[in-house]
Design a protein that fits this description.
This protein is of the alpha+beta class. Helix content is 51%, strand content 18%.
Length: 343
């Protein structure tokens, strides 16, 4: 009778352990099946758009740009002190404007001296934008500075595609250009007016308001039909320039560089904490690099190029929680088994 009772207890105990192990194995297989394909897909997308952090690495910055004042500068030579650098484009309808606003707000608050402790560089990722637009943006933003940020210590740069690509690649800034054709709207008409396109031409162009032309030849034909060949030819250059709609899928981040061009820190988002910026500048001045929240963001969030932001990755985080639960489960079973042996 005792032998039968012992065998029954033995059978129940090890059946329980077998079932628990089987459940654990299935949970781990399920979790890994979620993690692997998602991770591979994420890495592929993040190679195209996002921030590829290169903390502590020496950036190659031997690239040439034009300042807002039309002077040619070498980026490596320009960075001769701790530098906060941002990539935007000046006609951006999305996150660039709030990012620049957030950057201006935080440099107004940080308890460091512009020019002495740090400088700021903003580079357009759009090869079609030039010094005139950069100067306009520079004046518009800096006139709103609460501390009267010195104009000479915030550089606004434009350049060609080769130099832009070189600088962004070196600093781990991944973006994608999307050509959306030609369009007449209130914004493009305003820019044309500011660039000396006469009122009578602006008035005629309003008939094309809201229409989009994917091909330049079709847009030129529409202009000729609307304005006549004479006026169309006379004002073709400024009309094409300002009606050309180009968009970019890109991340929102700024970066701190040492005077040698070493990447000290990335700060993600469109608003920034003054303490974080001060620490980033101090680390850059000492040639050190600090961690950023991007490591957590990269794991828990995926960059959405269409929404231009990070979206919570439920599958990846959920799979990780399952693995964590499985680990806790194994530890609990092991400890209980040891306790039973002692008992």
């Amino acid at each position: 009778m005792e032998i039968i009772r012992f065998n029954t207890l033995w059978f129940k105990k090890y059946t329980y352990l077998f079932n628990s192990s089987l459940i654990l194995l299935l949970l781990m297989i399920f979790s890994l099946s979620l993690l692997s394909p998602v991770t591979a897909e994420q890495e592929k997308e993040e190679l195209l758009i996002g921030i590829d952090e290169k903390l502590g690495k020496q950036a190659v910055l031997n690239y040439t740009f034009l300042t807002a004042e039309k002077d040619t500068v070498n980026l490596a030579k320009l960075i001769d002190r701790p530098t906060i650098l941002s990539f935007v484009y000046f006609k951006c309808p999305g996150i660039c404007t709030p990012l620049l606003g957030g950057l201006l707000d935080v440099v107004d608050q940080v308890k460091l001296e512009p020019g002495t402790d740090f400088q700021v560089i903003t580079i357009s990722m759009n090869k079609d934008e030039g010094p005139a637009l950069a100067l306009k943006k520079k004046e518009n933003y800096l006139k709103g500075s609460k501390r009267n940020f010195p104009l000479q210590h915030w550089w606004w740069l434009t350049g060609d595609s080769a130099n832009i690509q070189g600088a962004t690649e070196s600093l781990g800034f991944k973006f994608k250009r999307m050509d959306k054709g030609y369009q007449i709207n209130d914004g493009t008409l305003t820019m044309m007016k500011e660039n000396n396109v006469p009122p009578n031409v602006i008035q005629k162009l309003k008939a094309l308001d809201g229409r989009t032309f994917e091909e330049e030849t079709k847009f030129i034909t529409a202009l000729e039909n609307m304005l006549g060949k004479g006026l169309s030819l006379q004002f073709r250059a400024p009309i094409l320039e300002h009606a050309h709609v180009v968009d970019f899928a890109h991340p929102a981040a700024i970066m701190a560089l040492s005077e040698e061009g070493k990447i000290a820190r990335y700060l993600h988002g469109i608003t920034f904490n003054p303490f974080d910026l001060k620490m980033a500048i101090m680390e850059a001045s000492e040639g050190r690099s600090g961690p950023s929240v991007a490591k957590v963001i990269k794991f828990c969030f995926s960059y959405d190029p269409e929404g231009r932001g990070y979206v919570f990755n439920f599958m990846k985080v959920g799979a990780s929680l399952v693995l964590l639960f499985a680990a806790v489960f194994v530890i609990t079973i092991t400890l209980r088994k040891k306790k039973d042996k002692k008992g």
